[in-house]
Amino acid sequence: xxxxxxxxxxxxxxxxxxxxxxxxxxxxxxxxxxxxxxxxxxxxxxxxxxxxxxxxxxxxxxxxxxxxxxxxxxxxxxxxxxxxxxxxxxxxxxxxxxxxxxxxxxxxxxxxxxxxxxxxxxxxxxxxxxxxxxxxxxxxxxxxxxxxxxxxxxxxxxxxxxxxxxxxxxxxxxxxxxxxxxxxxxxxxxxxxxxxxxxxxxxxxxxxxxxxxxxxxxxxxxxxxxxxxxxxxxxxxxxxxxxxxxxxxxxxxxxxxxxxxxxxxxxxxxxxxxxxxxxxxxxxxxxxxxxxxxxx
Length: 296
Known about the structure:
The chain is mainly alpha-helical.
């Protein structure tokens, strides 16, 4: 006879690994996934599985395993705990940024963009210690403040900061801890799905996909003819231009099919580029610094 209090509960609607382990829910042990991920190492890993397969729970598990300050007892009795050498090497060793995009929605592009701003700013606020970190310069602390700044209860992070916000946050965490940041993004396709049903899919695609491709092509084509740039490039150039090698027939159709939205994003980008150009022409160092801080 088993006492009612000792019965494990079914985790209906529960996708938090910590909650399942602490509050007495059934858990199907999938911790071998952690070893498999590192054995089949990749800078980026994409989990493509059907709905309700357990992707969110697995990502929650990864966060609980890798994040600095982890409760190691969460993994007691699970398969991964048998590999003590592996656990001592990787468990609780990394800063982790975790985002779920399932609530990034809205009736307009502006609404959806602000939902994303809120999400990233709230995650950044988990790391408030960066404001006083002795490992960060004063400029870097100012950059962090730009991620979480509020005005009348609303986050003030603008589009230029939002675009590079995850990169900035991960860099600041690396500076503080001396360990590369693990970034987990759940429900990554939801914003585009919501944009499609709300009627601003084309606007979202123009900004998040087509504009970066247009910029990459323009940067490659602006190179001096005959110069062997490939011998000198670093990560910055490589990251910016890797998407320039595109199917010309397909992307010409995509660009023209979304012409109005793409032109709008290009006009906005040109306006920002003009500001940089003006600062250069005037030898305006402070103006350049302000633009750089704004985008960081």
